[in-house]
Design brief:
There is one protein chain. With about 300 residues, this protein is of the alpha/beta class. The protein has a single domain, classed as Rossmann fold (3-Layer(aba) Sandwich). The protein has twelve helices and eight strands. The chain has an eight-stranded mixed beta sheet with strand order 1-2-4-3-5-6-7-8, sandwiched between helices. Helix 3 links the parallel strand 3 and strand 4. Helix 4 crosses helix 5. The protein is globular, with a radius of gyration of 18 Å. About 45% of the residues are buried.
Length: about 300
Amino acid sequence: MHLSLRILIYFAFTLFTNSVFSQAQDTNCPLVRKTVAIEGGSISYLEGGRGEPILLLHGLFAQKEQWMDVGCAMASEGFDVLAPDLPGYGASRNYPISIYSLDSQVRMLHEFILHIGKRGIHIAGSSMGGTVAALYASKFPGEVKTLAFIGAPLGVIGWSPEVRNAIFQGINPFIPINQKQFDLEMHLLFFRPPVIDDAVKTKLVQEYVQNNRHYQQVWDIINLYDHSLDGIKIKSTRTLILWGEQDGIFSIDGLPYLKESFKNPQAVQFPDAAHLLMLEQPEKVVKIYGDFLKD
């Protein structure tokens, strides 16, 4: 089974970028979809552009298309953009449940990078993807030129009070089983939640319900990494931290703790954004991240 919320991503792009994947279809966007076989499964990824390689990593229960706007722009600005579906997510298939451990994700990404022949990468991630990026930079420091957190990562600060309150009431806001719980998830993820038709919500909730056991298994594995960045020290890699001040998943209070792990990190707070910065404010992300890489 693979985790894919294609309709949600479709609507997120419609509402926040007014593109409906238009950049992917636009001939000016260099990104194309590719697939590579790795360790008995297949990893689907977007690649395009020329220049130094950038690896963009999505978060939990997400997929590579979340990076479409940012990836298209970065590829057009002189970078070789790589945005994979992490093993077990999106269109990456045929991996066992054990693949969801973040240690396995790091190992598989390293195999992926070696297989496609990239060297000296810039690595960036959103949410859980940011944690994977940091663990990758810690394990393979000589292969990573820069590290960027495009939104708050897992493993720095505990779940927000809203998430904790929901869990104490027996609700997992990331695995909603009705429309009210789905609305809560959107409220936590977005500063201005998308307005989604009830019929679409019903289809999305049905997917969560039908695949509930698998989602719960993955959630349990990822929760083992809720302190994964405690004490991590990466002093040799230039680091960028972007954090939404209205983040409903991980409070902005975690930013000072993350900064302590790096030597003179560049940190930028987004006043009117929440957790998914690359969807809410892609142009601002591209400007700040592009300038950081060109310094």
